[in-house]
């Protein structure tokens, strides 16, 4: 299991995520506001946009072509630390990761 | 790699014919039987495995190293040869290169400027149809946006365009297992391939169209020029019939479940959720397949390299292990994780457009139609697609 923290303007939630489950799926399963995952985790809609703020970011998987394309479509402007949370499966190396949920998703 | 029975067949087997006329028209009981038999079941009549549970289908679609698309995603050898090299039937770097080109006009950002036009078109269509009252909802309503707007965006030459609906439907029939139904469609597929090769060429395509962008990409060296005709099929095949089936199924479901239509009318914010629920319950593409590249242990069943697994999106979407009361149409469910668009690297490239069209039509209907009165509904017996040939309905305001 790896603990991941999700930040919004109003909340701060820590979830224990099973290896392999994406940060998007874990957020949706735990009813965290602000992450929609409208395309079901296929890097096709850019509605699970997060900013990686702290933690072991060198352990993050590289950005694929598909994610790259979609990061250019985010509603909130892309930043250097932007990721789609559906493209980040939890691993034990990612324990302690902190992500901020982009305010605008749709 | 041809479709033959593996030397040793592990796991449950069945004589069930998933492609009989009856099964195609009413697949749900058969799907349930296969889901309950195991994660995969060997279909003895077709020499292929069937995956029908949500978790198993999702696993297969998301594990392309074991279950590639490059050997084809159809259920017969001939067809798996024909489409070789398009986006649908490729893997790895070759797939990435062609998908990047195909997906470019289909991202949310590219589609945003079209949103208002599509909504305006849907609204004025619905206004016209309401004045008529009784309509044939497949031809008059569901086909309108795909045929007028999407065909124009794809930009193939006008001559032959009217054939596109027949071609697309026959092409999907060719995806099925060998048999009379499949073979009957092969000649039409040849016409479609000839059109893609001889008509989808520089000078005949609408300038600035999606189809022309494929040729531009080939000129820049991003894909091989001989890939262009099969890449045209990436647009010609799935961009029309699928969406038409989906809109038809939506009308049918709302006619059968007026209380669900009331919910949508009272709260149009439910429309995106309703769209997902329609696609879950009546997945327009019921099944494709994958070859097995290496021996694989699938939830305890030994799956041999060289075999083929049919992935039933439509059965996975009604798996009681994933969705409580899976046969119930509930517009508040919002099943964003449904597999109606597939999943993984080959997840539908056109899903944003398809949903945009569906939402536009439902938005227009919700603002003025109180009830759909269904007089008659006809389904085709089709290997792959689930939808209607005609829907005779009266729109009550
Ligand atoms: C409701 C409508 C639609 C449904 C249900 C649907 C369904 C699907 C499914 C299930 C797949 C996955 C194939 C696989 O697993 O191998 C797929 C792929 C694809 N779809 Fe759609 N589709 C729809 C609309 C569209 C539209 C409008 C377009 C184009 C304008 C389109 C273009 C494609 C393409 C190019 C692929 C291949 C993607 C790849 O292999 O990377 N689809 N679609």
Could you explain the architecture of this structure?
The complex is a heterodimer of chains A (106) and B (397). Chain A contains two helices and five strands; from the N terminus they run ββαβαββ. Chain A is an alpha+beta fold and 106 residues long. In chain A, strand 1 (2-7) and strand 2 (12-17) form a beta hairpin. The mean pLDDT of chain A is 93. Chain A has helices at 23-29, 65-71; strands at 2-7, 12-17, 49-54, 82-84, 97-101. Chain A has a five-stranded mixed β-sheet. Chain A has one domain: Ubiquitin-like (UB roll) (Roll). Chain A is globular, with a radius of gyration of 12 Å. By secondary structure, chain B is α+β, with helices and mostly antiparallel strands. Chain B has one domain (13-396): Cytochrome P450 (Cytochrome p450). Helix content of chain B is 47%, strand content 11%. Chain B has 18 helices and ten strands. Chain B has helices at residues 21-25, 28-37, 54-61, 77-82, 92-103, 108-111, 115-132, 137-142, 144-154, 164-173, 180-198, 210-219, 228-236, 241-256, 258-266, 271-281, 313-316, 351-368; strands spanning 13-14, 40-43, 48-51, 134-136, 287-291, 296-298, 301-303, 308-312, 371-378, 390-396. A five-stranded mixed β-sheet of chain B has the order 1-2-3-8-5, sandwiched between helices. In chain B, strands 4-10-9 form a three-stranded antiparallel β-sheet. A two-stranded antiparallel sheet of chain B has the order 6-7. In chain B, a hairpin with a 2-residue loop joins strand 6 (296-298) and strand 7 (301-303). In chain B, helix 10 crosses helix 11 (180-198), helix 11 packs across helix 13 (228-236) and helix 12 runs antiparallel to helix 13 (228-236). Chain B starts with 12 loop residues before the first strand and ends with a strand. Chain A binds chain B through residues 25, 28, 36-42, 44-46, 65-66, 69-70, 72-73, and chain B through 96, 99-100, 103-104, 107-109, 272, 336-339, 341-345, 347-349, 351-352.
